[in-house]
Design brief:
Layout lengths: L1 H8 L7 H12 L3 H26 L3 H9 L3 H21 L5 H6 L7 H11 L7 H5 L8 H14 L1 H6 L10 H17 L4 H9 L3 H17 L6 H11 L3 H18 L4 H11 L3 H12 L10 H24 L10
Length: 335
């Protein structure tokens, strides 16, 4: 049964690796640096598409898991985003099972944040109120769904979301801020991780949205690659200016994603060293420390309070290093 249901959806939700590259080229034209960067991005986009396809082929755990886990570990996390896409589609069109929730409570637990991001990638195509969907999910991590929503809109509705700065009218409250986290990530990809194009795109947004967008840039920088040199990461951190704490939050969450998946990557380690003066594992541990005893009845979502705590650690570390020796030493976060 699962096999045939997924097959029915495939013609109605087509997405290909080339679609990501073509969307980027549509805005900026043929750029040599863009071509080189997309050679690095292509395996990431390919894993997302493959994860979706595998899930729609047959979402039974005993079939799905061996196929996903057979993928290269470096891109497996992104493949789990594709799983989140597929399970969300199935739950929407064939709602007699809660496949997504069962999966994140079971074999997908280590990838829950990425699976939620994947769910958000299809939410723009699903009618209804997003808050009703969010209400069924983990109360802390559900905002990653809105991150995925923002990424999708930023990439596939680029003029509306990035050039005209439109946030979908059906999003309210904190969902609009989490949307901007994903929108920032989409700008990283659509600009080919080019510093000048990133900064030019972000500079057009209202100041009130800048920090959340930079948070998405930080996550993409540390998780998705495209930039692997110290000078570029330092430049981004400097240009972010007052938004640099949110850039640092994005880097920290990317390190946590890597730890949860049991993987490491040179660009993640480099970003953590440049921003925090710590290894990826140490930065991931910082996200654990700041997650302890989060309030459940505060005016702001626990997720936002978590982000604020990470940002506060980063800010305190920069102030400490700056007062002692300027910027000549790495930023060492107190744990």
């Amino acid at each position: 049964m699962a096999f045939s249901l997924g097959k029915l959806l495939k013609p109605f939700f087509r997405i290909s690796t080339d679609a990501f590259r073509d969307m980027a080229a549509k805005r900026y034209g043929a750029q040599e640096d863009m071509y080189r960067t997309w050679q690095q991005f292509e395996p990431v986009a390919g894993a997302l598409v493959q994860g979706l396809s595998i899930t729609l082929d047959d979402n039974r755990v005993e079939v799905l898991m061996p196929r996903i886990n057979a993928l290269d570990i470096e891109v497996r996390g992104v493949a789990y985003e594709g799983v989140g896409m597929g399970l969300t589609l199935l739950d929407n069109f064939f709602p007699w099972k809660n496949r997504l929730q069962a999966f994140v409570e079971g074999p997908g637990a280590s990838y829950i944040c990425l699976i939620y991001i994947g769910a958000g990638l299809v939410l723009p195509r699903i009618p209804g109120r997003p808050e009703r969907f969010l209400a069924r999910l983990d109360p802390l991590l559900r905002w990653f769904v809105m991150d995925g929503y923002g990424f999708y809109e930023g990439f596939f509705s680029l003029q509306r979301s990035v050039e005209e700065h439109v946030i979908p009218s059906r999003l309210f409250g904190y969902a609009r801020r989490a949307f901007d986290h994903g929108l920032g990530r989409s700008i990283w990809f659509s600009t080919g991780a080019n510093v000048e194009r990133i900064c030019a795109a972000l500079a057009t947004f209202p100041q009130a949205r800048q920090a959340d967008l930079w948070g998405g840039i930080g996550m993409a920088c540390a998780y998705a690659a495209g930039v692997v040199d110290r000078a570029t990461i330092e430049t981004l951190l400097t240009i972010a200016g007052p938004s640099s704490p949110q850039f640092a939050v994005g880097v920290a969450l990317a390190a946590k994603f890597r730890q949860q998946a049991g993987t490491s990557a040179p660009h993640t380690e480099l970003a953590c060293e440049v921003v925090y003066g710590l290894s990826g594992g140490e930065v991931a541990h910082l996200t654990d420390v700041t997650r302890e005893n989060l309030p459940v009845d505060a005016a702001e979502p626990a997720y936002e309070i978590w982000r604020q705590r990470i940002a506060a650690h980063y800010t305190a570390s920069v102030a400490s290093v700056g007062s002692a020796s300027g910027e000549s030493e790495p930023r060492k976060v107190r744990q």
